[in-house]
Amino acid sequence: MLKRLPVKLKPDNRRVICFAYYNLDEKEKHKTIERIYKNILSLDKVLLQETYNAVIDEFSSRHKNFTKILYKTFQHIKKYLPAEESSLTDIQKELLASYFMKEYSVEASALFNPSMVVHPVQDNEEKLKILISLRATGEQHISSIEFVEAISTKTMKWT
Predict the structure, then answer these.
(1) What gap in Å lies between CA 131 and CA 133, rounded to an integer?
(2) For the chain, domain boundaries
(3) How far does Cα 109 stand from its chain's mean position?
(4) Under DSSP, is residue 109 helix (H, G, I), strand (E, B) or coil?
(5) Which end of the chain has fewer CB within 10 Å, C or N?
(6) Mind listing the pLDDT tens digit for each residue in 96-153?
(7) In what order do the strands lie in the sheet with 110-118?
C-alpha cells in the first residue's frame, strides 16, 4: 500500500531549451540580419565587450556549450552578410548570432500525467530509485515528455 504524501510537481519556467530562430521570409531575413550586422559593427570595443559579456552571463548558465550554439547559429546566417563578414571577430559573430536565438520554456504552462517505474539500477539498499515520466506543456501549448529520477525510502512495500 502506498501512502500519499504532500509532494507536488510544479512547472519550473527556468527549464529552457535554446535554438536558432528566424521566423522571417527570405527578403526580411536578409534585411534584418544586415541591419543588426551594421549595428554590431558600429559598437566601440568597450560596448561590444560589455554587451557580449551580458549575453554570455545571462544565457550560458542555462545552456551547455552556449558559445557553440552561437557559432552554429552564425553559420546559418552568414550567407546573408556582405562579403566582408570574414573580418568579424568571434565576439561580433557570436553577438550577431545571439539576436537570432530563442529560449523555449518546456514547462511554462503545466506538468501532469506522471508515471513511475522502479529504476533498473539500484545502488543503495536504504533508498529506492524510481524513474518518473511527465508530460510538460510549454509556451504556445507545445507538449513534450520529460524524465526525472527520484528517490523513495524502501520502507514502503513495492510489488
Answers:
(1) 7
(2) 16-105, 110-153
(3) 16
(4) coil
(5) C
(6) 999 999 888 888 888 889 899 999 999 888 888 999 999 998 878 889 999 988 888 7
(7) 110-118, 127-137, 143-153
